[in-house]
DNA sequence: TCAACTTTTAGTTAATTTTACCATAACAAT
DNA sequence: ATTGTTATGGTAAAATTAACTAAAAGTTGA
């Protein structure tokens, strides 16, 4: 399509949208926009990705991120929430924008640019399978990702890379755990995301010394050994500490 | 425009692009895409942003990021480079994608979604003012940003936030310096970006102990005091160290 | 009720890194 | 030669991290 492009340079001198000079403005409004949601959860000692099975071409039958086209007068964040709800039943999920993907040939129906959104959710708060009427919504382990539709593997990998960076400098790991959790669970989570191991005693000392955890005075139940204390993340404490210059680091 | 939207849910069950059922596909291809470039440089002890002065409405006369519409068959990265060259004369700048901005009313001519791109450049390698024929290309201090056109302030602030995170975990600060630099310059740069101060002796020890700098055996000239050694960033050393598990941290 | 077992939790010490300084060296300018 | 300024090398205290030991607290099953 680039044959339409103005090849001389003078006509765009110092202007945005300088291409108006040669090409009717309508020619530029030929893009579609979509959103794709990367929803990560943590179960059974592993990080999991929520995917749907596509029922239509292209890529029919393949697993894919929940995603769809954005309406021309719809804001992107709202679209992401609408699409996620329609496809998985999940509601009120706070998502963060990731990167955009605009390869010219990424979609056969035309120029579709997609914007990635991601969220970390606690499985006990969201039960997509139960509340959703959508077909084939499943969790897959991020370490055993199948070949996904479109460029969705790329989107997921970008989110995972961002997550591994962010999780070290911001206390976002807690979003993956239930409201009440043990230090052991927290440690397993960090070990899973960062793919390392920590000394148990030192991990507990470090995290407790940050004063970010509230002791719920409750304990684990249904375990065949001494039950661990249950803690919860103290968001208010974190906010006030952060204002005093404290910076989380893992 | 959302009155066109299907309000029932059954028709999108389990499908991407399920909205096809009710709305003709053409209705979705009404977006335009643009790119906006956040070019950061470092001079006179400060971080500077490259802006142009808009010659056309909307926002005529205001300072703005170099940016323009993407052609329907043009890849986004190429568009970013084309636009940057057309508006500022800068060529071969490797840019990284930042976030996208799609507020419905952000542009009066229609639904224009813009993708931010950014790059850190060394001022001695690029002289946009000299090589560019574009009108009014200027550097402004990021700490004294004027009110920019559109949502460009938001775009810049997002890039700065990303930069401040990335610069601590990746050796990208060097991209802002000339090929050969003194440890003093490097320290000033980090202090400017992170808005702190470091102990001079400790800073030099820390950075040298990383073995990322090559001693060029040259020294500063034209200074009214003992000239400092000139170093250069050893990219190969960094790559091989990184593979051995080394992780940069500032 | 009691031993066996498992995991939590507390504590101790050595090693390492960070931080705060001090002293001197090297060069330019006068 | 003297003065001023910055680079550079060094040292010691403080703080943090890492490795390890051991006790405590619960469950389970005999």
What does this structure look like?
The structure is a homodimer of 250-residue chains. With 250 residues, chain A is an alpha+beta fold. Chain A folds into two domains: 29-168, Nucleoside Triphosphate Pyrophosphohydrolase (Alpha-Beta Complex); 180-243, Winged helix-like DNA-binding domain superfamily/Winged helix DNA-binding domain (Arc Repressor Mutant, subunit A), CATH 1.10.10.10. Helices cover 26% and strands 23% of the residues of chain A. Chain A is built from six helices and nine strands, in the order E-E-E-E-H-E-E-H-E-H-H-H-E-E-H. In chain A, strands 1, 2, 3, 4, 5, 6 and 7 form a seven-stranded mixed β-sheet that branches. A two-stranded antiparallel sheet of chain A has the order 8-9. In chain A, a hairpin with a 2-residue loop joins strand 1 and strand 2. The longest helix of chain A is centred in the middle third of the chain and has 18 residues, at 152-169. Chain A is elongated. Mean pLDDT of chain A is 86; it is low at 1-15. At the A-B interface, strand 4, helix 1 and strand 5 of A face strand 4, helix 1, strand 5 and helix 3 of B. Chain A binds a DNA duplex (30 and 30 nucleotides) through residues 182-184, 199-202, 204-206, 219, 223-229.
How would you describe this structure in keywords?
homodimer, about 250 residues, alpha+beta, Nucleoside Triphosphate Pyrophosphohydrolase, Arc Repressor Mutant, subunit A, 2 domains, two-stranded antiparallel sheet, DNA-binding
Q: What's the count of strands of chain A?
A: 9
Beta-strand content of chain A:
15-25%
CA-based shape of chain A: elongated
For the biggest sheet of chain A, the summary is: 7 strands, mixed
Low-confidence parts of chain A lasting 5 or more residues at pLDDT below 50?
1-15
Helix content of chain A: 25-40%
| Structural domains of chain A: how many | 2
Ends apart, CA distance between termini of chain A: 49 Å
Helix-strand topology string of chain A: EEEEHEEHEHHHEEH
Number of helices of chain A: 6
Largest interface: A-B, 56 and 57 residues
């Amino acid at each position: 399509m680039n044959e339409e492009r103005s090849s001389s340079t003078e006509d765009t001198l110092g202007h945005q949208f300088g291409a108006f000079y040669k090409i009717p403005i309508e020619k530029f409004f030929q893009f579609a926009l979509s959103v794709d949601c990367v929803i990560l959860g943590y179960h059974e000692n592993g990080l999991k990705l929520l995917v749907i099975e596509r029922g239509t071409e292209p890529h029919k039958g393949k697993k894919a991120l929940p995603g769809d086209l954005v309406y021309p007068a719809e804001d992107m964040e709202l679209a992401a929430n609408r699409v996620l709800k329609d496809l998985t039943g999940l509601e009120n999920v706070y998502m963060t924008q990731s990167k955009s993907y605009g390869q010219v040939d990424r979609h056969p129906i035309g120029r579709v640019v997609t914007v990635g959104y991601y969220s970390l959710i606690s499985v006990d708060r969201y039960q997509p399978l139960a509340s959703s009427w959508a077909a084939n919504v499943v969790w897959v382990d991020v370490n055993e990702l199948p070949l996904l539709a479109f460029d969705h593997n790329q989107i997921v990998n970008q989110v995972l890379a961002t997550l591994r960076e962010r999780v070290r400098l911001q206390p976002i790991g807690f979003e993956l755990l239930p409201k009440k959790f043990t230090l052991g669970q927290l440690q397993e989570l960090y070990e899973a995301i960062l793919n390392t191991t920590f000394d148990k005693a030192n991990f507990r000392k470090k995290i407790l010394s940050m004063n970010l955890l509230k002791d719920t005075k409750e304990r684990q139940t249904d375990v065949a050994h001494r039950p661990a204390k249950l803690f919860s993340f103290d968001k208010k404490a974190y906010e006030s500490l952060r204002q005093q210059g404290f910076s989380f680091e893992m």
